[in-house]
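Morning run. Coffee first, then this:
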Amino acid sequence: AIQVCQAPFLAELAMEVSLARAEGLPPKAYVSVRVGEHRKQAAFKENEVFRFPATGSPAKSFVVDVFQKLGAAQVNLANLVSGALEEDILVPTLDGSKIRLGIGLKVLDPTALPVEAPKPSRSEASQKAKSYLTENGVQLILQEMVQALLKEQPKDALSFMAAFIAQKQTIPAEKPSAVAAEEVALKASAPPAEADDEPEYPPGFPTDSAPEQMPDLSEHCSLMADVLNGDPSIYTLLKDRKTKGGVTFSQVIKPGVDVKGHRMVRTAGLVAGDAESYQVFEPLMGQALKLRFGEKLMTDSQPCDMDFSKVSPEPLDPTGEHVLSVKVHISRNLSNFRFPTACSEDERKSVEQTILKTLQELSGEIGGDYYPLVDSDTCAALGWPEGMSIEDEAALSKNGMLFEEPDSSVALSSGLARQWPDARGVFANKSNSFWVWLNEEDHLKLFAGQADSDLYGAFRRLVSAEKAINMSLQQQGMSFAWSDKLGFLASSPHNIGTGLCVTVTMRLPRLSALPDFRSMCARLKLQVKSVDGKSWAVSNTERLGTSEVDQMLTVIQSCKELLAAEKMAQGEAASPTPAPAPAPAPAPAPAP
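And here it is:
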């Protein structure tokens, strides 16, 4: 499905084409869009946007091509003789067949080549973009337009926007003030950069040190913004602090400053760069956690109980009629290293090697193999000079066990995409019932799941793996990042405490049709998400203040109540409405 945005008065200026969704698309597919002589292409990703410049005349059509990556091969240059190479190579494809290619290579004298102008760095491109937006007041006009649009809320939003910009074209734009210009420069985004020109963090709020004056957060929607807007003195108190590992206050709040958020989707607006972040920046962290979890859950000690024998082995849905699958996962970080939001490239590699050593010691149902992400070059010693094969990548993706490169504004500003995809990968057992993510949002994310209602079995497998990994780390003189008050520490404050997420996917056709279905789930301490319009994934809302076993038992009991309510609703729908009793026959008339 293709969405095209081209306002009538902009027909000769620009066009935006977005890929809304795709069905029947094979793995490793690329989509190409050509408007006139301009072509843009990329690996398919939902909501990918291609922007095209003016073509000189209104575009009457555009061309969409879909390509599939067939295979890849590495050519050994050791056979290069006298500056030339000619050989046939075999390229393995997704279906296991081979493509034979004749390759010719010749080394040229670099002094004889035409000199190409160097590509601008991302920072240079960013500065150029900021200057352009500042000089032309573009961002201010767009902000005014959006504010007017939300205030008026016209039925025809595009016509309203077209008229608004047309009016601005007839009125000389006021030169923005110095303060407004600085704000525009802060919020302007840079065009994409080459992979090897990637900066540590995207443009926006600085990460090395916080400005003297607190940024304007009056229109921001996040826990961080709520705290600092309520008490700006916290910013003054913390702006110059940093942890022993070098995590700065500006790194902690950058996601919430760069991204305004939305009142309907309230993010944390801050991240932890290491375990010490929760102590050094406690005046902010503590208040944000109280807003997230509530005052009553902020106890003096976080309980920890992973005794799976306290969980009933009885399946949630023995009939298999409603529950489709179960999954549990936990997040963990190593206390000796900065978290993925702030770690250096060398630290990330050390974390990968440290955890990989512990994972290779696992055996039985939790033993498996490690698959570095495609193009990661940190596991050459394991026989993966360029990461896992495209076949393994496709298999992991199909089974929902692969994590993708972060592309959201919050994730990018959190620093999670730096040096992607190096030192990141997936460890998985043969049956796909246990897998581990390395260096995604946290150092470790352990999963256990299966396509039935045996939540006990999944939890037992997860606990066994966590215990084995923890013991191996302790033998290496390491441990998980832990706080007696906050429990296991994570990059996102949302995931502290147990770090446990219990998810049950089920079909509830009658119950989910009721208007109070979501509020019913909330009362049962469950959050609910539609999977495909026919099934629902429910998971625990608790993380802090209760133990792992407590949270497991809550989900089990709540799911049983949902299943009972669904069966009752089905019974009521199936029961026919009783027919009204026949009227009594009239009494015979009295004899004369």
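The two ends are 85 Å apart (CA to CA). Good start to the day.
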